[in-house]
Amino acid sequence: QGGVDDELSLSAYITIAMLEAGHSCSYPVVRNAFFCLETASEKNISDVYTQALVAYAFCLAGKAEKCESFLRELQKSAKEADGSQYWEQKERSPSEKSPSFLDHAPSAEVETTSYVLLALLYKPNRNQEDLTKASRIVQWIIRQQNPYGGFSSTQ
């Protein structure tokens, strides 16, 4: 999200990077990071971006119970439009919304929604319902692309 400034989302982001780089959950730094994420996840995490990052970290690591728990929580805040599904940071005022001729979501919402998609795709014991949800998310993400195939940000 560019300027992540809280410890939890930064820890989740770095943990994801280490897992994607091929480190296992038993690697000491990753193991310690998950201890911190699990401890923090006992508290109520209200920020949807942080929820999405933590969900992806737990799903990527194969931690089924925590993965499922965060995906259930994220589902409560999902928005729906034209058969697709996405996540907003917070309710935007009319002045913050994109002009109607642009009709693209802010990059933070594309990023958040993309992390939820990744969590679903890496979810342990993924089923057909998860894949159906994933395809609805992909529909929304595709609609956010500009004519050149990119998105509203350079990120």
UniProtKB/TrEMBL annotation:
Gene (UniProt): Ovos_0
Biased composition (Basic and acidic residues): 78-95
Species annotation: Chionis minor
Taxonomic path: Eukaryota, Metazoa, Chordata, Craniata, Vertebrata
One GO cellular component term: extracellular space
Disordered as annotated region, ranges: 78-103
Domain Alpha-macroglobulin-like TED: 1-155
One Pfam family cited in the UniProt record for this chain: TED_complement
Protein name, entry field: OVOS protein
PANTHER family on file: MACROGLOBULIN / COMPLEMENT, OVOSTATIN
Domain of life, source organism: Eukaryota
